[in-house]
Amino acid sequence: MSWLFGSSKKDEQPQSTQQQPINNNLGFDPNSITDVSSIISTPGGLDTSRLHPLAGLEKGVEYLDLEDENLNTLEGAQGLIPSRGWTDDLCYGTGAVYLLGLGLGGSYGFFEGLKNIPANSPGKLKLNTVLNHVTKRGPFLGNTAGVLALTYNLVDSTIDGVRGKHDALNSVAAGAISGALFKSTKGLKPAGIASGLMAGAAAAWCGLKALLA
Questions:
Q1: Where are the domains positioned within the chain?
Q2: Interval 86-110: pLDDT, tens
Q3: Is the dihedral of CA 20, 21, 27, 30 positive or negative?
Q4: What InterPro entries does this protein map onto (predicted)?
């Protein structure tokens, strides 16, 4: 009935065995101490550095898990920026393209707002006109670019997984499919135009990477 009320005898360790790690860490047997002051007053009797949570790190780290830092080993996947897999490409690619679209759209809206300022208008109206154009163009282009980049990276990583390698053909095909999906609700002609534009953008990106590599 020992399994109901406690551990079995096989799991029990002798008290002397349990005390050995404590003795090794403290340098003495705590059960044999009756006067703490004698230990404190004895030079070298108690090494307080052994009680610190970070004690012993000067000996070096014996084991370090670097599993999360392993880079992507897929053939052809080593690009300009080190990547651990498709999740890194998805996050970095989508975020970078979104910020780029947001900046370009905001810049376009800024100059558009300057051109559309009403004549002889007060300063507040001028500022409001420019801000309206910036907030109209910036988020629109940023969101559009972000959705395209998100779709592209998902399709590209799927093709990479199916083919077992990454190359320019994968990127161009992912661009064409992403563009077609993005404008699929507008009809065949808009979907075809978007597909061609995205395929051309993917090919240009592959050429730039090959040039900088």
A1: 84-165, 167-212
A2: 677 778 888 889 999 999 999 999 9
A3: negative
A4: Tim23, Tim23-like
